[in-house]
């Protein structure tokens, strides 16, 4: 790509925003030229704003450290310098996030969002590019609905879904419809942001409740696996999901134990492994920079996947699966893992943006 896109990061000082800054350093298509946060953080350099609370393992990129942090409400400033923005808002007021993202879109800036505020907005696609890249088609309808020219909103789903939904989709894409799924997630503390879970709550402990996670886990896959009919999303019908979501003393990497029941036709274990091994989708076909070469990796070792050993597979963007075996109640069960702050957060957002660029929605 001869000319790089100029991008902004909204909520740049938070955990997800910091991951965007880290992952976008030296990106072949995107240059970070604008950073924004709350009014309290605005007016100083980015390096100063995150001093003492930079949580990444690499230093603040020099190219971003000197940028002045702007007030996220100063949309006209973003419009002057950005081709599009990543939204990494971390705040309890979802209505404020929703309205702010709409204002950016109204101003003509595409918004690629990690926030949950618009996940259930009727004309906003919730994208995992290996699964539902075609859902980007509703962007044209969204723009027509709001009389937006270049601006739009696209979101990514909840981070814990990334660990198991692509293996599920791969089986259904191969013709094996799934009727029921039982999931238990073991979610890393980084998923709670910073400062996150108090140490006395999580050290030597498991917390068997994460507010809102089970509802997201049971509902969001239905939109992602659904279809666009007559200009609207129609949720996947006939699939029931039951989830238990827990917080565990792991830094990064969400793990899920998954039990699946097929509706009619049931594959063999060998057929499932072959499907996962050969699964490729739109990001691989388009050779998107952040796409994993092999989106589903299967580990034959009995004690894998493990967060410490497998979360960084293929830039942190691959799903690692293991322990596929028959289930005494359903048909099969397996363990799946993905990097929650890369694949499940900023990396997933970057892959969404690459898809939208390649498909011509961002120009």
What keyword list fits this structure?
single chain, 14 strands, Rossmann fold, Dihydrodipicolinate Reductase, domain 2, 363 residues, 2 domains, 6-stranded parallel β-sheet
Classification by helices and strands: alpha/beta
Q: Output the CATH class name of the largest domain.
A: Alpha Beta
- The proportion of residues in beta strands is 15-25%
CATH architecture of the largest domain: 2-Layer Sandwich
Percent helix: 25-40%
Write the CATH fold name of the largest domain: Dihydrodipicolinate Reductase, domain 2
CATH superfamily of the largest domain: Dihydrodipicolinate Reductase, domain 2
- The tally of structural domains comes to 2
The number of helices is: 15
Mean pLDDT: 96
- Rg, Cα atoms, Å: 20 Å
User: Unreliable stretches, pLDDT < 50, 5 or more residues?
Assistant: none
Inertia-based shape: globular
> How are strands sequenced across the largest beta sheet?
3-2-1-4-5-6
Return the string of H and E elements: EHEHHEHEHEHHEHEHHEEEEHHEHHEEH
State the end-to-end distance.
Answer: 12 Å
| Oligomeric description of these chains | single chain
The major pleated sheet works out as: 6 strands, parallel
> How many beta-strand runs?
14
Reconstruct the topology from this structure.
Elements: E1 5-10, H1 15-24, E2 30-37, H2 46-49, H3 62-65, E3 69-71, H4 75-81, E4 84-87, H5 94-106, E5 111-113, H6 129-132, H7 138-146, E6 153-155, H8 165-173, E7 178-187, H9 199-202, H10 213-224, E8 227-229, E9 232-234, E10 240-247, E11 254-262, H11 269-278, H12 282-285, E12 296-299, H13 307-310, H14 313-316, E13 319-326, E14 332-338, H15 342-358
Parallel strand pairs: 1-2, 1-4, 2-3, 4-5, 5-6, 7-10, 12-13
Antiparallel strand pairs: 7-11, 8-9, 11-14, 13-14
